Each structure stands twice: as C-alpha cells, then as structure tokens.
Amino acid sequence: MDETFTVNLAEAKLDILNGIVECNKRGLVQCAKWLAELNHGLPQDRLERKDDHETYDAQRAGIADNEYDDYILAKSYFDVREYDRATYFTRNCESPVPKFLHMYSTYMSMEKKRLDNMTDSSVVSTKKHAKDFADLVSTLRTERSLGKLDGYCLYLYGVILKKLDLTILAVQVFVEAINAEPTLWSAWVELAPLVTHKVMLLDLNLPNHWIKQIFIGYAYIELFLNDEGIKIFQHLLKIGFGKCIFIPTQLAIAFSNKRDVDRSIEIFQRLQKIDPYRLDNLDSYSNLLFVKDMKTEMSHLAHKVVEINKYSPETCCVVGNYYSIRADHYKAVMYFQRALKLNPRYLSAWTLMGHEFMEMKNTNAAIQSYRQAVEVNRRDFRAWYGLGQAYEILKMPYYSLYYYKAAQQLRPYDSRMLVALGETYEKLDKVSDAIKCYQKAHSVGDIEGVALYSLAKLYEKQGEMEKAIPVFLSFCRDEKVVADKASLYHAYMTLANHYEKVEDFEKASHFAYKCLDYEDTKREAESLLKSIANKRGHKLATSSGTTNIAAAKAATNVEDKPDSESTDTYGEDMDMDESNICKTVAELAMGEEVPLVTSEEIPEFQMEDSFDTNE
Questions:
Q1: Could you give the angle at which helices 505-515 and 485-501 cross, rounded to 10 degrees?
Q2: How far is CA 86 from the centre of its chain?
Q3: pLDDT tens-digit series, residues 267-283
Q4: E strand or H helix at 329, and its extent?
C-alpha cells in the first residue's frame, strides 16, 4: 500500500456532492450523511455554479419522465416509513432510481415486519427468514445475470446475500457495486467485515479511486492492523482531510485497539468540542472512560447524550456503561436491552450485555449474548473471548479452548488471548503447548504482566526449578509494573526458599525481607529468616571448629622425634583447653566428622622396669 498517495480535493468534492444527490434520491440516508460530513471537512473551494436547468437535470437523472410522479409519491411514503405503499406505487417502474426504490422498499418492509414480530430481541439470525427474501433474491439474481443492475441495486443484493451468510458471493457482488459506484460508502462498509486477512484485502479488484485509500485504512483497523491503518489516516490528515470527523474518529479507535487509552480519549474529547451533538462512536468513548474508571466524565457524558436523544441506541449504550461503572448491573442490562430493541444488530450492546451477565454470575445469559454478538460480527474478538471465559467458569475446557483459539486468531498479538490459551492448555495437561503460549505472550508484550508468572509456575509444577528460577527473576525484575501483588510476593517467597535451600543466604534474605511487606507471606518469611539466621550461625561455628582441628592435625604430622622427647611432646598434645573440647563435642553432636588420631600416630608409652606402687 502506497502511503504517499495524493488526492485532488476539488475532484473529490465534486464526486462527494454527486454521491449525496444520488443517495438522497434513493433513500440511502446514512451514506448521504457520511458523504456530507466528509464534504464539510474539505476546504471550501469555489465550485462552478450550475444553472437551474443543470440542477433540475441532476435531480431527475435516472428517473423516466412518465415515472417521475409515481417516484415522488413513493419517495414521500418511504421517508415516513410507509414501505408497503412505496413498494406498491413503484411496482411498474423500470428506470434505475424508481426501480431501486421499489426493491429497497420491499426489503425494508420485510425487515420492519420481521423486527416488529420478534417477541424476544435476543435472536438476530436471519437464516430462518431466508424464505422471506426468496422472491427478492430470485429477482435480483436474474437481473444481475442479465446485467441490468446498477451499482445501487448490486449493493442491495450484496446486503441480502450477507444476511443469508452467502459470504463469497456477497464479496463478489459488493466489489461489482463499488466498481460501478465508488462513492457508495455503504457498500465499502458492508464489504469490510467480510475481508478476513490482509492478503485478501489487497487482492480485491477495487477501483483506483481516492475513496479506496479511506477504505484500506478502515479495513486495516477492522483487521486490527492498527499501525498500517494509523499511517494511512495520518497521511490523509496531512493532505487535506484534517477537518473530516471520520478520519480522527478512526485514529481514536485504532489507538484504543493498541491500548493507548489516554491518546484515544484525548481525540474523542477534541471531537466533542468540534461536534458536541454527535452520537456516532460515543459507545466506544464510554468504553474507554469505563476502562480508565473515569466516573465523573462518564456521568457528564451520560447526562449529555440523554439530553440530545434519549431513544437512540448509542445513548442507551452510554447510559448502560454509566450504570455498569457504578456496579448497578441490573440497570446496565436494562439499558443494553433497550439499545437492542432499537437496533437488534447493535454489536456493542450485545457484547457489553454479555459482560454484565458475567458480573451477575448468569453464565447462560452471558453465553447467549456473546453468541448473538458473533452472529452480528464474526470478527468481534471480545465476544469470542467472552465465550471462552464463560465456558471456563462452567469447567468445560475443550469448549473454552475452541473459543479462545478463535479470539487469538483475530488478535494474534494480544497477550491476553495467549495467556488464556496457555491456562486452558495447562488444565488439559498439554504442557508443551501451554509453555509456547506463555512464551509468545511475553514476547509480543505482556499487557497484564502475568505470562512470565504463569510460565514460572508451570515449570515449578513440573519440578523444573532450574528453568523456573530465571523466569521468576525476570518476573520480579520490574516489580512496579506487576498489578497482581499476590503473584509478585509468591514469586519472592519461591526465590527465597530456593536460595535458602542452596545456602545462598544473602539472596534468600533479600527476597525474604521483601515478603515481610505482604500480609499473606509475612509469617512464612519470618520463619524463613529465623531458619537462615540459625544456619548462618551453625555454618560459622562449623568453619571455626574445622580450622582448629586442621591445625591440630598438622601438628601431629611433624616428623617423629627421639623417644625421650616423645613423651614430652605427647604430654603437650594432651594439654587441650576446655573450649577446644567443647567445640569438638559440639561438632560430634551435630554429626560433623572430626578427624580421628590413628594408633600409628600415638607414640608408645614407655614404662620403667621397676615400679613400686608404694612410692
């Protein structure tokens, strides 16, 4: 991807204005809104003013003269959500704009009826409703094979195929739609979640249009290739898109994915000042405030969004996070459910509601919420990770392993996924796999600071202390970073016991003294320090006694002298003071080996021939 691309801003502005007109004619209001925001952020260059005839022609382009009145009537019904009436009055239209409006009204009518008939908002799968779309899909398939569909109708066909999980065909149709209408941003957005990896993204046959650069950056962030996405959006800021709100919003999301929370919050706060009534992506902002435990800011945000629009999904999501940060999980769930009634495919609400059910120990409800989140977007790693945690609580490690693997594939460089995988492998007695996971988690940058501790504990459990000790030392090296103090002091205690065992009393005392600061290890550390003091005293006594005995032995090895002198020498050797005797006795009592004097070394005692006992 060339990150030094340039964009002709004047041509881009014309493309955007034409796209806005076409989208508004067809009722694609979200796409028109996005294009209008992008247009507002570009420099206000003077454009050639079209005369009234040209403007009139642009408004009627794609609408046959004999169908214009039917179109105007149907469009007015569509705008007030009377989709069946809009469908009826465009039933015989053949020109591109009324034809699309007829198909789009048919689709919206089916979706509205399906949602209205849902008794429970906990099901978002559309597979069971495939028969509802059968006639429309058949019509679109036939028209496509005859080459009669324009870019907008192809987009609608792709949306339905995506709902029916016909992913491969949906990708092909979206690419065709984008090539036909490059400014149809809705088609780009629908295509992005279907792209599974970078190679697939770069192999797509996309038009060489300036909007492609925005899509590539957007898709990189969807794939969690955040650094590549950040480079593209930062370049777009430099070449004239600096005031387009969408660009810094994507940067904020990318920094959030990289866990640079402070920088992401700073961008969102700046955007709030630029556009104070904007609700888009405020759910992501509230998630960041939750992570940083910024209760005051969360409260201000919740009250503000309620004043703007009390019944939008984004508002309900923010208020749900507000109650969650206050640990009022029942109210949080209630607001997430409200968000889902307003928009059953609102991904954040499903995932966050799963988190709340986990806090409430309602594992079955959490699993259901996470599953629906996966139905909405299979690339939501949080939902896969949540499923893994839920099945871990239910003590079903093989299920847990499956979901953790799915999460790790989506976030291959996230240490949390790798640590969770390692712990699951450890429970399944797959030690080598667990070790690999912990090692990789440390190498990619351990977010929670637990990979080394888990690895050292595993080595300790396997009895491989020669491997465990260096890992414990690495874990303890930067003690300020370690969040879990219990793990840190357990590591200190393990190191102290090890060094005491190998009689490295200096290091043993160093780590034992650290353990005195923690209540759970204090008593064990005090006991160990007493043991170390006793062993040190014993070692000192032993070394002193050994020195004296060695000196005595050296004296006995002196060359033999004449018999007359031997008696005197022997007498001197026998002259032992009381302290030496005590040391020798102590050494014998402690099991120390004291060198014995052999019979050969003792000189023979000469008795006189005449010995009178009476003398």
A1: 150
A2: 45
A3: 999 999 999 999 999 99
A4: helix 329-342
